[in-house]
Amino acid sequence: MKPPVVSDVDRDLVVNEAFGPTFQGEGPSTGRYAHFIRLFGCHLSCTWCDTPQTHDPARHDLAAEQRILSIEDILSWLASTPADLLVITGGEPLLQPRALERLLCAIRERELATDVEIETSGTIAPTDVLISAVTRFNVSPKLAHSGLRRRQRIRPAVLRDLAGSGKAVWKFVVQQVDDLDEVQELVGTYGLHPVWIMPEGTDSSTVLARMRLLADPVLARRWHLSTRLHTLLWENSRGR
Fold first, then answer.
1. Which superfamily is assigned to 12-171 in CATH?
2. 28-80 pLDDT tens trace
3. Which end of the chain is less packed: N or C, by CB atoms within 10 Å?
4. Per the annotation, where are the binding residues for substrate?
């Protein structure tokens, strides 16, 4: 096993994978041509997590799953195959705020992406610099079926900060119709809007079956329904 890598927290990012061009597979930008940077590390451990290689030593050699990329490395990669949309995901990207600030400011200065989205669990508040630099936070508060205690997965002050930023959309991972009641409680308590419901699943048959199950109940609540386009196209292949 390789030893863990060590980064300069202000100038380097600990990355699991960077890939694209591909399509954004979830939420309001579904289908858009995009680059992805998947950052390493997560402080949560959902039972159904579809990216355990970013944090789970029981299933993955974590030293082999992480690499250090300098901001200049990432900028050069983005410039080599331009895409208007950059999606930063994880793991939990907001565990690396300072280097992420520097990266996003450099991307804006060099005009390497028109839009930047950060996928986050809604448990870590973004800095003011990140709020200014991003187009959108795709926030996925975890529900009870994640296997996490409520105090781990629901941080009221963070949810209110994100809602107040004016740059958050709320994308809930749902397994069954009854989960929508829990979503409704969070939406009402914290004033979350707009709401996207996305089926949990890492294969196309599960995603399609759950979308069909959820479609009418989601319509009845006047929410949005998200597919998982990358799963429908490529199943659970990494780097797509």
1. Aldolase class I (3.20.20.70)
2. 999 999 999 999 999 999 999 999 999 999 999 999 999 999 999 999 999 99
3. N
4. 23-25, 38, 89
DSSP 211-236: HHHHHHHHHHTT-EE---HHHHHHTT
Q: What is the mean pLDDT of residues 193-205?
A: 98
Alpha-carbon distance of 103 to 203, in angstroms, equals 33
Report the binding-site residues for Mg(2+).
51
User: What is the structure's pLDDT at 36?
Assistant: 98
Report CA dihedral (220, 184, 189, 93) to the nearest 10 degrees: -110
What is the model's pLDDT at position 148?
Answer: 98
Annotated binding residues for [4Fe-4S] cluster: 42, 46, 49
AA identity, residue 222: R
Calculate ∠ Cα 62-60-41, nearest 5°: 45
Residue 189 phi, psi dihedral angles, 5° rounding: -70, -40
Tell me the binding residues.
23-25, 38, 42, 46, 48-51, 89, 91, 140-142
- Please state the pTM of the whole predicted model: 0.95
pLDDT above 60 (res 17): yes
